[in-house]
């Protein structure tokens, strides 16, 4: 997969050279290019922002440098010309007639050869594990990191002629800019690419993969500061271990994220069996019912 990130703070993306994703790049599984937006400014001060039309606080990112940057990145170029291998997607050919363009609500609209342009924004679609899996199937992602109050809206409307534009959010809180969201996105997607995580089975056992939170985990020693590893995990009974893990994942989800249980039950009525429902009832959770009365410290 090729990923291009455009930002005024390229150093923010440096951690992607570390650990698993650094290794993925050295192995050629992830082809990451980080671009400095200021490379596409044309004035002496390399200006990227101006005051908001209509007044108000803060600054808005200028359309000119963004337009040039997204055109160049679409062609597989950086501010100084071509970088890396040619992009895999063909430019959209039938767009560009000035017709009204709409932003894609989700990345699953027909692919039509336009690469995805992901735009971090607290007003975007919430990134979740299902979306990360969808993105991992794409040959190419471009991430446009805004700062300040955001990017002039015309940049996204214009880019929609060449890209499938998808604003996305990490959650319901505000960051200073899109860079941390881009980091999170590239890590969440990159680890799903074939060969990036050594043991693919470990990908399936995680929180959010089965619509539930993951069970707690333990290692050696069996007793530490007076706290024991649960006996069942040392028993060697694989069936009992699996049941315990399922139960603990269910209990955690009921206590911390009952919204996930409601979503799971609504999406797939068979996802929770009688044994599951019995455990959940102990936590005070019943389908379509009320939340647990007393939050535990967990
Ligand atoms: Cl993606 N961007 C910004 N600026 N703030 C956020 C966010 C994204 N997700 C949550 N807060």
The bound ligands are:
6-chloroguanine
Strand content: 15-25%
Number of domains: 2
CATH topology of the largest domain: Alpha/beta knot
- Which CATH top level class of the largest domain fits? Alpha Beta
Order of helices and strands: EHEEEHEEEHEHEHHEEHHHH
Q: What is Rg?
A: 23 Å
Architecture (CATH level 2) name of the largest domain:
3-Layer(aba) Sandwich
Topology overview:
Blueprint: E1 2-7, H1 19-26, E2 31-36, E3 49-50, E4 60-61, H2 63-74, E5 77-78, E6 81-82, E7 116-126, H3 129-136, E8 140-144, H4 153-159, E9 164-169, H5 179-190, H6 201-204, E10 223-224, E11 227-228, H7 231-234, H8 238-256, H9 258-267, H10 274-282
Parallel strand pairs: 1-2, 1-8, 7-8, 7-9
Antiparallel strand pairs: 3-4, 5-6, 10-11
Helix pairs in contact: 2-4, 3-5, 8-9
This protein binds 6-chloroguanine (6GU).
Give a description of the structure.
The protein has two domains: 2-200, SPOUT methyltransferase, trefoil knot domain (Alpha/beta knot, 3-Layer(aba) Sandwich), CATH 3.40.1280; 210-298, Orthogonal Bundle (Trp Operon Repressor, Chain A). Helices cover 31% and strands 15% of the residues. The protein is built from ten helices and eleven strands. A hairpin with a 2-residue loop joins β10 (223-224) and β11 (227-228). α3 crosses α5. The chain is elongated and about 70 Å long. 6-chloroguanine (6GU) is lined by residues 120-122, 124, 168-171, 173-175, 177-178, 181.
């Amino acid at each position: 997969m090729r990923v291009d990130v455009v930002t005024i703070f390229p150093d923010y993306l440096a951690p992607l050279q570390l650990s698993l994703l650094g290794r993925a790049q050295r192995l050629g599984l992830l082809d990451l290019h980080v671009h400095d937006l200021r490379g596409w400014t044309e004035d002496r001060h390399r200006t990227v922002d101006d005051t908001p039309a209509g007044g108000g606080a803060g600054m808005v990112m200028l359309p000119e440098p963004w337009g040039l940057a997204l055109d160049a990145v679409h062609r597989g170029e950086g501010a100084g010309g071509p970088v890396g291998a040619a992009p895999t997607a063909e430019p959209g050919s039938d767009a560009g007639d000035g017709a009204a363009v709409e932003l894609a609500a989700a990345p699953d609209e027909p692919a039509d050869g336009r690469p995805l342009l992901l735009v971090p924004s607290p007003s975007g679609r919430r990134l979740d594990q299902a979306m990360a899996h969808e993105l991992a199937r794409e040959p190419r992602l471009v991430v446009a990191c805004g700062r300040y109050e955001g990017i002039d809206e015309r940049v996204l409307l214009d880019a929609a002629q060449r890209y499938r534009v998808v604003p996305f959010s990490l959650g319901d809180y505000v960051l200073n800019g899109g860079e941390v969201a881009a980091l999170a996105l590239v890590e969440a997607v990159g680890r799903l690419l074939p060969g990036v995580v050594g043991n693919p089975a470990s990908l399936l056992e995680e929180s959010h993969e089965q619509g539930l939170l993951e069970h707690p985990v333990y290692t050696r020693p069996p007793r530490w500061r007076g706290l024991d590893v649960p006996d069942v995990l040392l028993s060697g009974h694989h069936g009992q271990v699996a049941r315990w893990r399922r139960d603990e994942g269910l209990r955690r989800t009921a206590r911390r994220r009952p919204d996930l249980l409601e979503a799971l039950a609504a999406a797939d009525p068979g996802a929770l069996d009688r044994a599951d429902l019995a455990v959940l009832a102990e936590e005070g959770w019943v389908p379509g019912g009320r939340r647990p009365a007393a939050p535990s410290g967990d």
